[in-house]
Amino acid sequence: MNLLLLGPPGAGKGTQAKRLTEELAVPQISTGDMLREAVKKGTALGKEAKSYMEKGALVPDGVVIGLVEERTKAPDCKSGFMLDGFPRTVAQADALGTMLARQGRKIDHVVAMEVNADELVARLSGRRTCRTCGTPYHIEFTPPKKPGICDKDGGELYQRDDDKEAAIRQRLTTYDAQTLPLITYYAQRGLLRRVNGLGSIDEVYGRIIKAVR
Ligand code: AMP
């Protein structure tokens, strides 16, 4: 199954994607995680991406399209994949369609996670991420057992630079301007499954499974 998770920053795409990979037996492909990894390693790509990410702007289409194309060819994507945070522009969606057609594949479902703006800001400003495994927490809603420490691997939890207030606002503006048009784009292609992103992680998870099964 080839799945795409669409939604504003803070909608819970990463959290749900991590759980869905087990249920659906397909890997999560998060362009945000891949870019953060490149920044951490200080690669040429990471150096290029860093300034855009810090501002809450999008990294140029060509950079992320190349990353995704490479990743979808890996052996673990043979029986499908779940894209989280890509595509984010109409140009990326067009490139994805062309890339998949070339590989003889297609998208099965686009899950659009819907959450209002006030809730998004509350979620993002309290978000903490494990430095080693990337597991997301929330200081109020889903705190770790020990403050500042990941339950899974004991890694340090940190606040992403782009989860600070000015960058959050910019990311939401970027989403409305550049990514929101994809809702119509995929609705017109009969692929859109709207899911209410409010409620517990389990509730939202159940809605997604129902939408794709
Ligand atoms: P995320 O973890 O998905 O919220 O992504 C964090 C940041 O990485 C975004 O604010 C962008 O700067 C960059 N990014 C992630 N995915 C994409 C994409 N598909 N296109 C352009 N920039 C991206």
Describe this protein's structure.
- With 213 residues, the chain is of the alpha/beta class.
- The chain has a domain at 2-27 and 74-116 and 176-212: P-loop containing nucleotide triphosphate hydrolases (Rossmann fold).
- It is 49% helix and 15% strand.
- The protein contains nine helices and eight strands.
- A five-stranded parallel beta sheet has the order 2-3-1-4-8, sandwiched between helices. It has a three-stranded antiparallel beta sheet with strand order 6-5-7.
- The protein is globular and about 45 Å long.
- Adenosine monophosphate binds at residues 9, 31-32, 35, 52-53, 56-59, 64, 85-86, 88, 92, 162, 171.
Architecture blueprint of SSEs:
Blueprint: E1 2-6, H1 13-24, E2 28-30, H2 31-41, H3 44-55, H4 61-72, E3 81-84, H5 90-102, E4 109-114, H6 117-125, E5 127-130, E6 136-138, E7 157-158, H7 165-179, H8 181-188, E8 192-196, H9 201-212
Parallel strand pairs: 1-3, 1-4, 2-3, 4-8
Antiparallel strand pairs: 5-6, 5-7
Residues 9, 31-32, 35, 52-53, 56-59, 64, 85-86, 88, 92, 162, 171 line the site of adenosine monophosphate (AMP).
Please summarize what this structure is.
49% of the residues lie in helices and 15% in strands. The protein is of the alpha/beta class and 213 residues long.
Which features does this protein show?
Rossmann fold, single chain, 213 residues, 15% strand, alpha/beta, 3-stranded antiparallel beta sheet, binds adenosine monophosphate, 5-stranded parallel beta sheet
